[in-house]
Design a protein that fits this description.
Aminopeptidase; five-stranded antiparallel β-sheet; alpha+beta; single chain; about 25% helix
Length: about 190
């Protein structure tokens, strides 16, 4: 039986809102540390999320219009979507996702965003592997990934993680996507 939602995401519920301020590290990998978003992440996040080419495959493909928008966005992020920093420089390199799929029946999604300046270094696979390990260690029995069919790099990451393809679906996020699953022992 999986632990509670807040156990997996690492927060407490106060007034109906998840609070992560007290959590310093959600999980770590060999080269990365996954943390709640902080105000000082806004500039690096804006540099990535303002680029149409970067956001085109994400759940919300609209680029961030300005830094003020990204600052407000960072302040609103609550659970299951975290900042990813390189341990070596404590530099923001991307984001990690581990949360229930929108429109699902309790299925959990793993995801990875690697900012353009940090791509092609194996970070996406490392983020995905760390997110899967974190989910399984907190009692999840299966974890899904949804990847747009035209996103060849993320399709390759899902396969490299050992995720099994289930075919296309339009059930989640209002887009047609390739659906993958992984279970302990896969």
């Amino acid at each position: 039986m999986p632990r509670g939602h807040r156990d997996i995401i690492g927060g407490d519920i106060i007034g109906g809102r998840e609070t992560l301020e007290h959590v310093r590290t959600v999980f770590e990998t060999e080269r990365l540390v996954v943390t709640p978003w902080r105000d000082d992440h806004a500039e690096a996040a804006h540099a990535a999320y303002s680029q149409p080419e970067f956001v085109r495959y994400l759940g919300n493909p609209a680029p961030h219009p300005d830094l003020a928008y990204t600052r407000a966005w960072v302040a609103r992020i609550t659970d299951g979507f975290w900042a990813v920093e390189a341990k070596s420089a404590r530099e923001l390199v991307g984001a990690a996702v581990l949360k229930p799929l929108p429109g699902g029946d309790g299925e959990w999604e793993v995801g990875w965003h690697v900012f353009p300046a940090h791509q092609r270094q194996g970070y996406a696979t490392e983020i995905g592997r760390g997110g899967i390990r974190h989910g399984f260690s907190n009692g999840l029995n299966e974890i899904y990934a949804i990847v747009r069919p035209e996103n060849a790099p993320s399709l390759a990451v899902a396969r490299k993680l050992g995720m099994q393809p289930l075919g296309q679906t339009d059930r989640y996020c209002g887009v047609t996507a390739e659906l993958f699953v992984i279970r302990p022992g896969d």
